[in-house]
Write a structure and sequence with these properties.
Elements lengths: L1 E7 L2 E8 L2 E5 L1 E5 L11 H6 L5 E4 H6 L3 H6 L3 H5 L5 E4 L2 H6 L2 E5 L4 E4 L6 E4 L1 H11 L3 E3 L11 H26 L10 E6 L5 H12 L5 E4 L8 H11 L9 E3 L5 H9 L4 E3 L2 H7 L2 E4 L2 E4 L26 H9 L3 H27 L3 H14 L2
Parallel strand pairs: 4-5, 4-14, 5-6, 6-10, 10-11, 11-12, 12-13, 13-14
Antiparallel strand pairs: 1-2, 2-3, 7-8, 8-9, 15-16
Helix pairs in contact: 6-7, 7-8, 8-9, 10-14, 11-13, 12-13, 13-14
The protein binds zinc ion.
Length: 376
Amino acid sequence: MYRLLKQDGKAKRGEFHTVHGVIQTPVFMNVGTAAAIKGAVSTEDLNAIGTQVELSNTYHLHVRPGDDVVYKMGGLHKFMVWDKPILTDSGGFQVFSLAGLRKIKEEGVYFHSHIDGRKIFMGPEQSMQIQSHLASTIAMAFDECPSSVAERKYVEDSVARTTRWLLRCKEEMARLNSLPETINPHQMLFGINQGAIFEDIRIGHAKEIAALDLDGYAIGGLAVGESHEEMYRILDATVPHLPVDKPTYLMGVGTPENILEGVDRGVDFFDCVYPTRNGRHGHVYTNHGKLNLFNAKYELDARPLEEGCQCPACRRYSRAYIRHLLKAKEMLGMRLCVLHNLYFYNTMMTEIRDAIEAGRYQEYKAGKIARMRAGE
Ligand SMILES: [Zn+2]
């Protein structure tokens, strides 16, 4: 259940009540694709850096270790030892981007596993069954994510099929939630808006899915190659047609600046691999722009990654030491950079929520972007 606490312009400050606790929005979900945050980050660490929601991947967990294994181990929460909310994506995006040789039919998608090449079928019912096995807090509907450069006719047909699939997802989730053996019978379902970069298709689809009274609504198929300006244009057009009293989730986005702009357009939930992936490569986010720790100028730099940062890396270690660890390929180097980056994102979300509550979101956003752009 979503409670809209305050609006500042279009920016929303809300609370999402779930069976695994309350999510304060806007929120950045920390991505743990295969039930782990890459960079040797544990769920204990997530608690220490202010993570509210962890995101895991249906396709990856279905392929390995298998959702039946997770189910037999009592569901994802028990398996990875995390008692706060978990969102699982539907597997659709990975089926369309990772898997080899796929065939899309009305019933679903036939494809080959990227791990061992074995043939797999996934449709709306299978995706819901896998996510029910994983027992996440929030399940995502199974959709097709058409390319941002796909032709209009293809996008129209694809979006119509995604709507039919959404109805099947809703029905199947209701059935699964009614079974006695279901681990989380309160699992919630978010629908996904598609339509590539065609505003009218996006709006039509948003209206259709908004009528289904789902627990939340995502905007998919953005940040897949189109420009930032195009993404903001689509958000400007689409978000007003999604219910304001339900959470809005912009999938796979993005940079700190993208998030600040998304919040400004009414988005509540975000997720992205940038803070973890960049951290593993020694790129760290600060309020004065991104640093590349491999740069020689940090060799004798005794300062923390960011002065004043309260993350586990900055409270103890110097840039010089972390740079050495990265260069020596010591896992601790990656781990410290990932912890700092996730802490940076999580802390930015707290600042965002405070700014909306205080009615000074525009001022906060402009100041934050200006400082990050100005650099060191
Ligand atoms: Zn830090």
